[in-house]
Amino acid sequence: MTEGTTAGQVAVRVQGLWKRFGEQVAVAGVDLELPAGRFVGLVGPNGAGKTTTLSMVTGLLRPDHGSVEVVGHDVWRDPAQVKARIGVLPEGLRLFERLSGRELLAYTGRLRGLPGAEVDKRATQLLDVLDLAGAQHKLVVDYSTGMRKKIALASALLHNPEVLFLDEPFEGVDPVSAQTIRGVLERYTASGATVVFSSHVMELVESLCDWVAVMAAGRIRAHGTLAEVRGTERSLQQAFLELVGANGRDTGSDLDWLGGGAR
Ligand SMILES: Nc1ncnc2c1ncn2[C@@H]1O[C@H](COP(=O)(O)OP(=O)(O)OP(=O)(O)O)[C@@H](O)[C@H]1O
After folding, report:
1. Is residue 1 pLDDT above 50, yes or no?
2. What are the ABC transporter domain coordinates in residue numbering (predicted)?
C-alpha cells in the first residue's frame, strides 16, 4: 500500500457528475465522497447509472460535466497517477482470451511495471488463494464465468492498488467462489485499502459493506454508513425499496393469463 488510504480520508471525490447518451440521461448530477479504508457498496435498480458512474470514476468514460478525484488525483487531468493507484473489474469482462490465466497475470504485471520475479511471486499466491492454480495453464477463453471473475480480480489486485472498483463482482459466481472472493476482499480492506463495488444483491451488500450509496435514475438517493442508510427499516432491502419507490409497486395484476388456466 502506498500513500493516502487511511481511515478518515476520502478515497473518491465526485462532484457534479453528468452523463447523457442522446436523450437518455444516465447520470444526473452525482456528488459523492467515498471514505477510504471502507468496503463501499453502490446499489441501485437496473438502469440506475451505476456502471456509467463507475466507468467515469475509473477513467473509462469521459463525463459530460463534473470532476472525479481518486486518492487526491484528478482522473481526467492526471490519468496515469490515478490508474497506477486503482484496480478495476469492469462490467462485461474483456480479457485476453488466448492467454492462459498465468500468462494473463504475467502480462498485466509487466504492464504495471512490476519486476518479473515479483509478478511471478504475486501471481502464484493469487492463483493459489483464488483456487485457480489447477487452471493456470488453461486458456482464459476456456474459463467458466466464475473463473473469469477470479482471474480478472487477480489482475486487478496484482499491483496492490489503493482503491479497487468492482462492477457486479459476484454475478454468475457460485457460492464457493463467492466466499473465496469475499475472503480476499476482506483481507484487502482490513489492510486499509478501499473497495467500491456495485451490486443489486442487498443481502450481499448488507453483509459485506460498511458504507453504502443508493442510486436511482442517475442520482444518489442516500449515502452513508450501513446503519445510516438502513435507518429504521429492518433490512437494507427494505430501505432500498422505500428509497427507489418500489414498495407497493403493482406486481403484475395485468398478467392474469400467466400460469394456470387456459393456454
Ligand atoms: N452506451 C450507452 N448508450 C446509450 N445508453 C446507455 C449507454 N450506457 C448506458 N446507457 C443507459 O444509461 C442508463 C444507465 O445505465 P447503467 O448501465 O449505468 O445502469 P446500471 O445501474 O449499471 O444498470 P444495471 O444494474 O442494469 O447494470 C440506462 O438507461 C442505460 O440504458
Report:
1. no
2. 12-242
Give the per-residue pLDDT at 177. 84
Whole-number Cα distances in Å, 78 to 2, 28, 38, 69, 131: 17, 24, 24, 9, 36
Q: Is 49 in the pocket of ligand 1 (CB under 6 A)?
A: yes
Sign of CA dihedral 57, 59, 64, 66: positive
Query: Which of 23, 42, 50 is the pocket-test mutation for ligand 1 (most atoms within 8 Å of CB)?
Result: 50
Does residue 183 line the site of ligand 1, with CB under 6 A? no
Tell me how far apart the alpha carbons of residues 100 and 90 are, in angstroms, rounded to a whole number: 20
Length of the chain: 263
Q: Tell which one of 17, 18, 43, 52 to mutate to probe ligand 1, the residue whose CB is within 8 A of the most ligand atoms.
A: 52
ipTM above 0.90, yes or no: yes
Q: Does the pLDDT value for residue 173 go beyond 80?
A: yes
> What is the position in ligand 1's atom list of the atom closest to the CA of 44?
21
Query: What pLDDT, in 10s, does the model give residues 61-118?
Result: 999 999 999 999 999 899 999 999 999 998 777 899 999 999 999 999 999 999 999 9
251 lines ligand 1 (CB under 6 A): no
* Ligand 1 center from residue 9 Cα (angstroms): 30
Q: What is the pTM of this model?
A: 0.89
